[in-house]
């Protein structure tokens, strides 16, 4: 992937630092394919991230949400303490860290691990003050009559 130099845009804009840093980081994610994941829309304002983490237990995984970033880490611990002789390794058990950029007002509601799939449920809760509201349109003549009636 090509790298674009965005530094000329930094000189002529104010307040877009976060947007430009996101554009700079596109394609720079290490281990971009591991572990595989899906992002689903489960409701009008509900989402679910499903990650394939076969071989990892709850103790091997950590989920952290800070500011607007969700970080999922996995680090396999050796249960036996002994080194086993694996003749063929096809199941990846390497450590990973996956980051998801969350939109404003998106919160993590919970996580569950079942059959090697980690499910993380997210909900977008928009504050009442930011929700769209309907403004009633009155006839201009009615407003003038109300003002005259109250003045008399």
TrEMBL record:
What Gene3D superfamilies does the record point to?
2.60.40.790
- Establish whether keyword Repressor is in the entry: no
Start and end of every SHSP domain? Answer: 28-140
**UniProt-recorded name of the protein:** Molecular chaperone IbpA
Question: What SUPFAM superfamilies does this protein map onto?
Answer: HSP20-like chaperones
Q: Keywords assigned by UniProt?
A: Stress response
Query: What domain of life does the UniProt record list for this protein's source?
Result: Bacteria
Task: Give the record's family classification.
Answer: Belongs to the small heat shock protein (HSP20) family.
Q: Name one Pfam family in it.
A: HSP20
Q: Which InterPro entries match?
A: A-crystallin/Hsp20_dom (IPR002068), ACD_IbpA/B (IPR037913), HSP20-like_chaperone (IPR008978)
* KW Cell inner membrane (keyword) present: no
């Amino acid at each position: 992937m090509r790298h674009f130099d965005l530094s000329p845009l930094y000189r002529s804009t104010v307040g877009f630092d976060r947007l430009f840093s996101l554009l700079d980081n596109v394609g720079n994610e290490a281990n971009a394919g591991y572990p595989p994941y899906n992002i689903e829309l489960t409701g009008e304002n509900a989402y679910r991230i499903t990650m394939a983490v076969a071989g990892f237990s709850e103790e091997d995984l950590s989920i952290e949400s800070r500011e607007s970033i969700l970080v999922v880490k996995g680090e396999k611990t050796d249960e036996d303490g002994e080194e086993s002789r694996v003749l063929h390794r096809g199941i990846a058990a390497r450590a990973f860290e996956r980051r998801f950029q969350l939109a404003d007002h998106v919160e993590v509601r919970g996580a569950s691990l079942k059959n090697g799939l980690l499910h993380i449920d997210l909900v977008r809760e928009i504050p009442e003050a930011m929700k769209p509201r309907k403004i009633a349109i009155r006839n201009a003549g009615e407003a003038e009559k109300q003002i005259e009636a109250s003045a008399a």
